[in-house]
Automatic annotation (TrEMBL), chain A:
Organism: Sphaerisporangium melleum
Annotated Basic and acidic residues bias: 1-10
Bias kind Low complexity: ranges: 90-104
Biased composition (Pro residues): 63-89
Annotated protein name in UniProt: Uncharacterized protein
Span list, region Disordered: 1-109
TrEMBL record, chain B:
Domain of life: Bacteria
Protein name: DUF4352 domain-containing protein
Transmembrane residue ranges: 28-48
Keywords: Membrane, Transmembrane, Transmembrane helix
Region: Disordered, residue numbers: 1-25
Organism in which the protein naturally occurs: Sphaerisporangium melleum
The keyword Membrane appears for this protein: yes
Amino acid sequence: MNAQDPRDTGVWRPPAAEPSWFTPAPRLPRPDVRVWPPPAPEEDQRSTSTVPMPAVTNGSVPPRLPWPPPGTPPRPAAAPAPAAAPPPFGAGRAEPPAAPATRSAPERRGMPTAARITLQLFGAVALSAALLAVTGYDALSRFEKDNAHDVRQVAQGQEATLLNTRWRLLGVKVMSPQPENMAPGTVSMQVDLEGTALNEKGVYYSIAPPGFRLGDGTGRTWMALAFKQPDQLSPGTPGRFSLVSSVPKAVAGEVELVLWPNENAAAREIGQALRFDR
Amino acid sequence: MALSSDLVPDTSPAPAPADRPRGPRRPAWHRIAAAVLGVALAAGAVYAQTFTMSADQRRAPLTFSAGPRQDVRTDHFSARLERVEFARSVRVKRTYATDEATTDQVFLIIKIGATGARRPLQLAPFLVTADGLRFNATDKVNPTATITEKWVQPGWWRSALCFFEVPPDKIAGARVVVQEKVNDLAGDQYLPETSFDLGLTGAQVRQGVEGAKDGYEVSGI
């Protein structure tokens, strides 16, 4: 590496051989500069500022133009004095600032008191209503955002994927024989479902089963609990879930299985879900 | 108009405004009345702040109150208070074992019926005494025998018990509040609740506590 190498910044260089105090520095010597006493300001000292300021040189100052420029009408000596008593308090606020006019404008009359008070009341009520409306809309939109759900309808016999597992509904039927101690007017339903884990993340549904619900057409839902489920899920191997649920007899023919990723999501009805046609 | 005259402000002194003729001065009583009115309005605005709800009140659930044996309908569930009993000890019969819960005080046993409006839910009742003390359901009784483990669903009523371990002198005038069991950290915080007055006077409580029996049997799966 020699002194002409442009990549050599001189900050650090490895010793080529035996380091020595007289190893020549690669920097070029700078000429001596007088720093003290400060040199006298040069006659024509140019600034190094990058701010685009106009260069004003002595002797070339443009002559001041007369003000006001010739041709404009003369400024009125003073604001026109009010002819009569000052207007009532606040009456003149709505008026625009008086433009310099060549001739005195006709005197504007203030708004009538009743109209002014009505306008102020209306403004106060409108502002309060707007504040309440914005607050309520904010709270409502936040609530809806926090409780958003996305329920996908799955056609009969089709498969659908929910969180690393492919699900297929095998059947929804009235359980027979019916268990004892059923509440009057209710019927027990049995739902069979097959889940196939797509990858290693989908095998935990045998430990933490998803949230199963049966829903009717009007938005009411009922609990469904797995009474049979695979001991272990492995990717690619289908596992069978058997659910039992109690629903009113009137809706036994129409309830559909709704599958939420977990019990918490099912209780709050948030997130993604599958709804299987029967 | 030349550009340079825009950049360079006109520094020549503006002509001094002529003395404006002032209007007639307002009378003193007028000014005093205006000051009093202003102070009164400001004080009223400050006083109106005392009517605002505190943070706890704003977060409080919407309470539907009723007496015994009255159905209360909220947006999430309907509930009714069906029966109030006293017991010295509670025996929970399970499939292979029987748990016995005893107390130095008394067990207040409340039977609550409930049905859901839209979705299945679980309820968590608590007791509020006349002097504002709050009692949660006792943990001595296995929760499988209580309402907290039962699912309340739309379409039919379900009745279940809840057990409170309460000093007998606190029971008179108490009320039971039925709330949906929720996760405190997540979920809808604006939930309805129902409040039932037990309707027990001091004499009724004394009579009930004296007649409280041992070994109240209940089945917990």
